[in-house]
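Quick one, C-alpha coordinates below:
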Protein backbone atom coordinates (compact mmCIF):
# COMPACT_ATOMS: atom_id res chain seq x y z
CA UNK A 1 0.00 0.00 0.00
CA UNK A 2 3.08 2.24 0.11
CA UNK A 3 2.41 3.59 -3.39
CA UNK A 4 -1.20 4.55 -2.67
CA UNK A 5 -1.94 8.25 -2.57
CA UNK A 6 -4.95 9.54 -0.66
CA UNK A 7 -6.31 13.07 -0.87
CA UNK A 8 -8.18 14.19 2.26
CA UNK A 9 -10.31 17.26 1.68
CA UNK A 10 -10.32 18.42 5.31
CA UNK A 11 -7.90 17.79 8.13
CA UNK A 12 -9.08 15.01 10.42
CA UNK A 13 -7.88 14.47 14.03
CA UNK A 14 -4.21 13.57 14.41
CA UNK A 15 -5.01 10.10 15.75
CA UNK A 16 -6.73 9.25 12.49
CA UNK A 17 -3.86 10.58 10.42
CA UNK A 18 -1.43 8.49 12.45
CA UNK A 19 -3.43 5.34 11.71
CA UNK A 20 -3.37 6.09 8.00
CA UNK A 21 0.36 6.76 7.97
CA UNK A 22 1.00 3.58 9.95
CA UNK A 23 -0.79 1.70 7.17
CA UNK A 24 1.74 3.05 4.68
CA UNK A 25 -0.57 5.55 3.01
CA UNK A 26 0.87 8.61 1.32
CA UNK A 27 -1.36 11.48 2.40
CA UNK A 28 -2.14 14.81 0.86
CA UNK A 29 -4.25 16.96 3.15
CA UNK A 30 -5.86 20.18 2.07
CA UNK A 31 -4.75 22.71 4.66
CA UNK A 32 -7.58 25.17 5.07
CA UNK A 33 -9.11 26.95 8.01
CA UNK A 34 -11.90 24.83 9.44
CA UNK A 35 -14.72 27.24 8.64
CA UNK A 36 -13.73 27.83 5.02
CA UNK A 37 -13.36 24.29 3.73
CA UNK A 38 -11.65 23.29 0.51
CA UNK A 39 -11.94 25.51 -2.55
CA UNK A 40 -13.08 24.15 -5.89
CA UNK A 41 -9.62 24.62 -7.35
CA UNK A 42 -7.97 22.78 -4.46
CA UNK A 43 -10.45 19.94 -4.72
CA UNK A 44 -9.84 19.43 -8.44
CA UNK A 45 -6.08 19.65 -8.03
CA UNK A 46 -6.11 17.14 -5.20
CA UNK A 47 -8.23 14.64 -7.12
CA UNK A 48 -5.92 14.75 -10.14
CA UNK A 49 -3.00 13.44 -8.12
CA UNK A 50 -4.59 10.77 -5.94
CA UNK A 51 -5.53 7.12 -6.11
CA UNK A 52 -8.38 7.37 -3.61
CA UNK A 53 -10.38 10.44 -2.61
CA UNK A 54 -11.44 10.78 1.03
CA UNK A 55 -14.02 13.58 1.14
CA UNK A 56 -16.14 14.82 3.98
CA UNK A 57 -19.82 15.61 3.60
CA UNK A 58 -19.08 19.31 3.01
CA UNK A 59 -17.53 18.79 -0.43
CA UNK A 60 -19.66 18.32 -3.57
CA UNK A 61 -18.17 15.34 -5.40
CA UNK A 62 -19.86 15.80 -8.76
CA UNK A 63 -19.08 14.48 -12.27
CA UNK A 64 -16.51 17.21 -12.95
CA UNK A 65 -14.54 16.27 -9.84
CA UNK A 66 -14.66 12.56 -10.60
CA UNK A 67 -13.76 13.06 -14.26
CA UNK A 68 -10.65 15.03 -13.28
CA UNK A 69 -8.74 11.78 -12.74
CA UNK A 70 -9.35 8.84 -15.07
CA UNK A 71 -7.18 6.65 -12.81
CA UNK A 72 -9.25 7.31 -9.68
CA UNK A 73 -9.78 4.00 -7.89
CA UNK A 74 -12.64 5.13 -5.71
CA UNK A 75 -14.25 7.57 -3.31
CA UNK A 76 -14.27 6.67 0.37
CA UNK A 77 -16.80 9.00 1.96
CA UNK A 78 -15.89 9.73 5.58
CA UNK A 79 -19.52 9.73 6.70
CA UNK A 80 -22.66 7.65 6.68
CA UNK A 81 -24.62 10.06 4.48
CA UNK A 82 -23.46 10.49 0.90
CA UNK A 83 -25.84 13.01 -0.67
CA UNK A 84 -22.79 15.13 -1.57
CA UNK A 85 -21.38 12.37 -3.83
CA UNK A 86 -22.64 11.68 -7.34
CA UNK A 87 -23.12 7.96 -6.82
CA UNK A 88 -24.31 7.65 -10.41
CA UNK A 89 -20.62 7.46 -11.32
CA UNK A 90 -20.49 4.13 -9.51
CA UNK A 91 -21.92 2.55 -12.63
CA UNK A 92 -19.09 4.04 -14.70
CA UNK A 93 -16.40 2.24 -12.73
CA UNK A 94 -15.72 4.58 -9.81
CA UNK A 95 -16.90 2.82 -6.66
CA UNK A 96 -18.14 4.85 -3.72
CA UNK A 97 -18.08 3.63 -0.13
CA UNK A 98 -19.26 5.09 3.15
CA UNK A 99 -19.01 4.19 6.83
CA UNK A 100 -22.36 2.90 8.11
CA UNK A 101 -22.62 1.71 11.68
CA UNK A 102 -19.72 3.83 12.89
CA UNK A 103 -21.94 6.75 13.86
CA UNK A 104 -24.93 4.84 15.14
CA UNK A 105 -24.46 5.02 18.89
CA UNK A 106 -22.85 8.45 18.87
CA UNK A 107 -25.67 9.97 16.82
CA UNK A 108 -28.34 8.29 18.94
CA UNK A 109 -26.72 9.75 22.06
CA UNK A 110 -26.74 13.20 20.49
CA UNK A 111 -30.38 12.85 19.44
CA UNK A 112 -31.34 12.16 23.04
CA UNK A 113 -29.17 15.02 24.26
CA UNK A 114 -31.09 17.37 21.98
CA UNK A 115 -34.44 15.88 22.96
CA UNK A 116 -33.77 16.32 26.67
CA UNK A 117 -32.27 19.77 26.19
CA UNK A 118 -35.24 21.11 24.26
CA UNK A 119 -37.79 19.50 26.58
CA UNK A 120 -36.20 20.86 29.76
CA UNK A 121 -35.10 24.25 28.36
CA UNK A 122 -31.44 23.53 29.14
CA UNK A 123 -29.82 26.04 26.73
CA UNK A 124 -32.26 28.78 27.71
CA UNK A 125 -31.62 28.20 31.41
CA UNK A 126 -27.87 28.20 30.82
CA UNK A 127 -27.99 31.50 28.95
CA UNK A 128 -30.20 32.94 31.68
CA UNK A 129 -27.61 32.02 34.31
CA UNK A 130 -24.47 33.17 32.50
CA UNK A 131 -26.24 36.37 31.49
CA UNK A 132 -26.58 37.27 35.16
CA UNK A 133 -30.37 37.36 35.05
CA UNK A 134 -31.09 34.70 37.68
CA UNK A 135 -31.96 36.24 41.05
CA UNK A 136 -34.48 33.96 42.73
CA UNK A 137 -36.18 30.64 42.01
CA UNK A 138 -39.80 30.85 40.87
CA UNK A 139 -42.43 28.19 40.08
CA UNK A 140 -42.84 29.42 36.50
CA UNK A 141 -39.14 29.58 35.68
CA UNK A 142 -38.38 27.62 32.49
CA UNK A 143 -41.30 25.23 32.63
CA UNK A 144 -40.31 22.20 30.64
CA UNK A 145 -42.02 19.01 29.63
CA UNK A 146 -41.61 15.60 31.24
CA UNK A 147 -39.87 13.05 29.05
CA UNK A 148 -40.68 10.12 31.30
CA UNK A 149 -44.02 9.50 32.97
CA UNK A 150 -43.45 12.41 35.35
CA UNK A 151 -46.11 13.67 37.73
CA UNK A 152 -48.93 12.75 35.36
CA UNK A 153 -48.00 9.08 35.33
CA UNK A 154 -48.74 8.96 31.59
CA UNK A 155 -46.36 7.12 29.30
CA UNK A 156 -45.08 9.50 26.63
CA UNK A 157 -45.04 8.53 22.97
CA UNK A 158 -41.83 8.78 20.96
CA UNK A 159 -42.33 8.87 17.19
CA UNK A 160 -39.31 7.84 15.12
CA UNK A 161 -39.29 8.63 11.39
CA UNK A 162 -36.62 6.50 9.74
CA UNK A 163 -35.99 3.21 11.51
CA UNK A 164 -32.53 2.23 10.35
CA UNK A 165 -29.57 1.71 12.66
CA UNK A 166 -29.80 5.14 14.26
CA UNK A 167 -33.57 5.11 14.62
CA UNK A 168 -33.41 1.72 16.32
CA UNK A 169 -30.64 2.91 18.66
CA UNK A 170 -32.79 5.92 19.59
CA UNK A 171 -35.67 3.55 20.38
CA UNK A 172 -33.48 1.46 22.69
CA UNK A 173 -32.63 4.53 24.73
CA UNK A 174 -36.32 5.19 25.32
CA UNK A 175 -36.55 2.17 27.64
CA UNK A 176 -35.16 4.16 30.55
CA UNK A 177 -37.92 6.72 30.13
CA UNK A 178 -40.70 4.13 29.98
CA UNK A 179 -41.97 5.44 26.65
CA UNK A 180 -44.15 3.94 23.93
CA UNK A 181 -42.48 4.04 20.51
CA UNK A 182 -44.19 4.54 17.15
CA UNK A 183 -42.02 4.16 14.06
CA UNK A 184 -42.39 4.83 10.35
CA UNK A 185 -39.99 3.71 7.64
CA UNK A 186 -41.23 2.52 4.24
CA UNK A 187 -38.21 0.27 3.77
CA UNK A 188 -38.02 -1.18 7.26
CA UNK A 189 -41.60 -2.06 8.08
CA UNK A 190 -40.68 -5.68 8.82
CA UNK A 191 -37.95 -4.54 11.21
CA UNK A 192 -40.46 -2.34 13.02
CA UNK A 193 -43.08 -5.06 13.24
CA UNK A 194 -40.49 -7.54 14.55
CA UNK A 195 -39.10 -5.11 17.13
CA UNK A 196 -40.78 -5.42 20.55
CA UNK A 197 -39.77 -1.83 21.31
CA UNK A 198 -41.73 -0.24 18.46
CA UNK A 199 -45.14 -0.22 16.82
CA UNK A 200 -45.59 0.52 13.12
CA UNK A 201 -47.59 3.67 12.31
CA UNK A 202 -48.15 5.56 9.10
CA UNK A 203 -46.64 9.03 9.16
CA UNK A 204 -49.88 10.99 9.83
CA UNK A 205 -50.78 8.71 12.75
CA UNK A 206 -47.27 8.92 14.17
CA UNK A 207 -47.28 12.71 14.04
CA UNK A 208 -50.73 12.98 15.62
CA UNK A 209 -50.02 10.65 18.53
CA UNK A 210 -46.40 11.45 19.43
CA UNK A 211 -45.23 13.69 22.25
CA UNK A 212 -41.73 13.67 20.74
CA UNK A 213 -40.82 13.16 17.08
CA UNK A 214 -37.27 12.44 15.89
CA UNK A 215 -36.22 12.39 12.23
CA UNK A 216 -33.56 10.01 10.89
CA UNK A 217 -34.13 9.79 7.13
CA UNK A 218 -31.54 10.30 4.39
CA UNK A 219 -31.87 13.39 2.22
CA UNK A 220 -33.27 12.38 -1.17
CA UNK A 221 -35.58 14.17 -3.58
CA UNK A 222 -38.45 12.28 -1.95
CA UNK A 223 -37.55 13.25 1.61
CA UNK A 224 -36.80 16.90 0.84
CA UNK A 225 -39.27 18.86 3.01
CA UNK A 226 -40.77 15.58 4.20
CA UNK A 227 -42.02 17.55 7.19
CA UNK A 228 -43.81 20.66 5.99
CA UNK A 229 -46.90 22.64 6.88
CA UNK A 230 -49.36 19.69 6.67
CA UNK A 231 -47.19 17.53 8.91
CA UNK A 232 -46.62 20.28 11.45
CA UNK A 233 -50.37 20.82 11.66
CA UNK A 234 -50.85 17.12 12.36
CA UNK A 235 -48.59 17.27 15.41
CA UNK A 236 -49.87 17.96 18.90
CA UNK A 237 -49.47 21.56 19.97
CA UNK A 238 -47.37 20.44 22.95
CA UNK A 239 -45.15 18.13 20.88
CA UNK A 240 -41.40 18.40 20.40
CA UNK A 241 -39.62 17.88 17.08
CA UNK A 242 -35.96 16.85 16.82
CA UNK A 243 -34.48 16.93 13.32
CA UNK A 244 -31.51 14.58 13.57
CA UNK A 245 -31.38 14.24 9.77
CA UNK A 246 -30.23 16.67 7.09
CA UNK A 247 -31.68 20.15 7.49
CA UNK A 248 -33.83 20.21 4.31
CA UNK A 249 -35.80 17.15 5.46
CA UNK A 250 -37.86 19.82 7.25
CA UNK A 251 -39.34 22.85 5.51
CA UNK A 252 -37.73 25.34 7.85
CA UNK A 253 -39.85 28.28 6.73
CA UNK A 254 -42.95 26.36 7.81
CA UNK A 255 -41.12 25.23 10.93
CA UNK A 256 -40.40 28.84 11.81
CA UNK A 257 -44.06 29.78 11.33
CA UNK A 258 -45.25 26.89 13.49
CA UNK A 259 -42.69 27.44 16.24
CA UNK A 260 -43.44 31.16 16.35
CA UNK A 261 -47.20 30.58 16.53
CA UNK A 262 -47.11 27.84 19.18
CA UNK A 263 -44.70 28.74 21.95
CA UNK A 264 -44.90 25.39 23.72
CA UNK A 265 -44.10 23.35 20.62
CA UNK A 266 -40.37 23.33 21.01
CA UNK A 267 -37.90 22.27 18.36
CA UNK A 268 -34.38 21.02 18.19
CA UNK A 269 -32.45 21.12 14.98
CA UNK A 270 -28.99 20.30 13.74
CA UNK A 271 -27.55 22.69 11.18
CA UNK A 272 -26.59 20.77 8.06
CA UNK A 273 -26.12 23.32 5.31
CA UNK A 274 -23.48 25.96 4.82
CA UNK A 275 -26.12 28.47 3.69
CA UNK A 276 -26.48 29.74 7.25
CA UNK A 277 -28.59 32.72 6.26
CA UNK A 278 -31.43 30.33 5.46
CA UNK A 279 -31.75 29.48 9.13
CA UNK A 280 -31.39 32.89 10.74
CA UNK A 281 -35.11 33.44 11.44
CA UNK A 282 -35.10 30.29 13.57
CA UNK A 283 -32.14 31.52 15.59
CA UNK A 284 -34.23 34.26 17.16
CA UNK A 285 -36.89 31.93 18.59
CA UNK A 286 -36.64 30.97 22.25
CA UNK A 287 -38.35 27.63 21.70
CA UNK A 288 -35.85 26.38 19.09
CA UNK A 289 -32.36 25.13 19.92
CA UNK A 290 -29.61 24.56 17.40
CA UNK A 291 -26.52 22.45 16.91
CA UNK A 292 -23.95 22.30 14.11
CA UNK A 293 -23.07 19.02 12.43
CA UNK A 294 -21.27 17.50 15.42
CA UNK A 295 -23.39 14.48 16.36
CA UNK A 296 -20.62 12.13 15.26
CA UNK A 297 -17.71 14.11 16.64
CA UNK A 298 -16.50 11.79 19.35
CA UNK A 299 -12.90 10.66 19.81
CA UNK A 300 -13.90 7.02 19.43
CA UNK A 301 -15.76 7.76 16.20
CA UNK A 302 -12.68 9.07 14.40
CA UNK A 303 -10.61 6.04 15.38
CA UNK A 304 -13.25 3.64 14.10
CA UNK A 305 -13.98 5.48 10.89
CA UNK A 306 -10.30 5.48 9.95
CA UNK A 307 -10.14 1.72 10.61
CA UNK A 308 -13.00 1.26 8.13
CA UNK A 309 -11.31 3.51 5.59
CA UNK A 310 -7.96 1.69 5.82
CA UNK A 311 -9.70 -1.64 5.25
CA UNK A 312 -11.60 -0.26 2.26
CA UNK A 313 -8.45 1.34 0.88
CA UNK A 314 -6.78 -2.07 0.90
CA UNK A 315 -9.78 -3.48 -0.92
CA UNK A 316 -9.72 -0.69 -3.49
CA UNK A 317 -6.08 -1.39 -4.31
CA UNK A 318 -6.52 -5.18 -4.38
CA UNK A 319 -9.73 -4.96 -6.43
CA UNK A 320 -11.75 -6.79 -3.76
CA UNK A 321 -15.38 -6.10 -2.78
CA UNK A 322 -15.74 -3.09 -0.51
CA UNK A 323 -17.12 -3.24 2.99
CA UNK A 324 -19.81 -0.66 2.32
CA UNK A 325 -20.30 0.08 -1.35
CA UNK A 326 -22.99 2.64 -2.11
CA UNK A 327 -25.15 1.60 -5.03
CA UNK A 328 -26.10 3.91 -7.88
CA UNK A 329 -29.61 5.37 -8.32
CA UNK A 330 -31.13 2.34 -10.03
CA UNK A 331 -33.79 1.77 -7.42
CA UNK A 332 -31.58 -0.52 -5.34
CA UNK A 333 -31.13 0.15 -1.67
CA UNK A 334 -27.93 1.41 -0.19
CA UNK A 335 -26.23 -1.16 2.00
CA UNK A 336 -25.68 1.69 4.42
CA UNK A 337 -29.15 2.92 5.13
CA UNK A 338 -31.81 0.67 3.70
CA UNK A 339 -33.20 3.64 1.79
CA UNK A 340 -32.97 4.10 -1.97
CA UNK A 341 -29.57 5.26 -3.15
CA UNK A 342 -29.58 8.84 -4.38
CA UNK A 343 -27.48 11.21 -6.42
CA UNK A 344 -25.68 14.04 -4.73
CA UNK A 345 -27.31 16.48 -7.11
CA UNK A 346 -30.55 15.93 -5.15
CA UNK A 347 -32.53 16.25 -8.37
CA UNK A 348 -32.00 12.92 -10.11
CA UNK A 349 -34.75 10.51 -9.18
CA UNK A 350 -34.55 6.75 -8.99
CA UNK A 351 -35.92 5.02 -12.08
CA UNK A 352 -38.20 2.92 -9.92
CA UNK A 353 -40.47 4.83 -7.53
CA UNK A 354 -39.75 4.37 -3.85
CA UNK A 355 -42.08 4.37 -0.90
CA UNK A 356 -40.69 7.77 0.07
CA UNK A 357 -41.88 8.94 -3.35
CA UNK A 358 -45.33 7.63 -2.43
CA UNK A 359 -45.21 9.71 0.75
CA UNK A 360 -44.15 12.76 -1.26
CA UNK A 361 -47.00 12.31 -3.75
CA UNK A 362 -49.48 11.89 -0.91
CA UNK A 363 -48.31 15.14 0.64
CA UNK A 364 -48.46 17.07 -2.64
CA UNK A 365 -52.11 16.08 -3.13
CA UNK A 366 -53.19 17.64 0.17
Amino acid sequence: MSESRVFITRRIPDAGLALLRAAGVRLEICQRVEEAGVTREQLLAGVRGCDVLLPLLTEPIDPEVLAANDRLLGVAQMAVGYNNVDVARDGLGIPVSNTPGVLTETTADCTWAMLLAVARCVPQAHNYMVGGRYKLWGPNLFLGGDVGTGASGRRKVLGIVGYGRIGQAVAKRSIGFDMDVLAFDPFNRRAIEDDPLATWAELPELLAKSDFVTLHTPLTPETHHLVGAPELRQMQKTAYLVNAARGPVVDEKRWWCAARAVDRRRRARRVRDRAAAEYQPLWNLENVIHQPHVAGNSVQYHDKIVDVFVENLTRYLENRPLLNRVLGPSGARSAATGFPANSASSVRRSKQPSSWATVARSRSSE
